[in-house]
Amino acid sequence: MYDTKSGMERGTFYQLRNLINCRNVKKEVKSDVNAAEDFIEIVVTGYIVSAVVSYLGMACIDDTPRDTILSPDMWMEDDSVRKSALMGVASAIVDKHIDLATEFGQIQEGSDDSSAESGINVFIGLA
Fold first, then answer.
1. Global pTM?
2. Rounded to the nearest 5°, which phi and psi values hold at 122?
3. DSSP labels for 63-104?
4. CA-CA to 10 of 20 to 30 Å: which in 3, 77, 92, 112?
5. What's the confidence (pLDDT) of residue 79?
6. Shortest CA distance to 4 belongs to which of 28, 21, 20?
7. Three-state DSSP state, 21
8. Is the separation of the CB atoms in 107 and 120 below 8 Å?
9. Residue 27 CB neighbours (<10 A)
């Protein structure tokens, strides 16, 4: 799951494991699958929250979003308006941080070979 030599490198699983004190997460996932699963969920959730806070121009989680779509009075709007605004922000965040790239060439249109690999890979970049 991680390399113990990477403890000083920011953002590595081992550094994050030590930072958030998840000492029950071992190098070998099979030694405690539940701990590894919980750890991955914590890390991914943290990256998602970080991406949202950054996108909305917030200094911390308790700050007010600077994004004009999420105005303070938006919460008094109709459900459909609020949903549309939140979906717009979520889509923008996904577009900014997730790049769908074709690594194996173009997907051939009309191909009926359902067993063929699609060639689509997802690269997530959170800086």
1. 0.65
2. -110, 125
3. SPP--TTS-GGGGGS-HHHHHHHHHHHHHHHHHHHEEEEESS
4. 92
5. 92
6. 28
7. coil
8. yes
9. 13
Strand 98-102 and strand 120-124: pairing? antiparallel
Residue type, 40: I
* Kind plus residue range of the DSSP H or E element containing 121: strand 120-124
At residue 37, what is the residue type? E
Chain segment 64-104, per-residue pLDDT in tens: 887 667 777 888 889 998 899 889 888 888 888 776 664 43
Q: Which of 53-57, 62-66, 99-103, 117-121 has the lowest mean pLDDT?
A: 117-121
The tokens describing 67, both together, are 């994004």
Please give the Cα distance from 20 to 100 (Å, whole number).
31
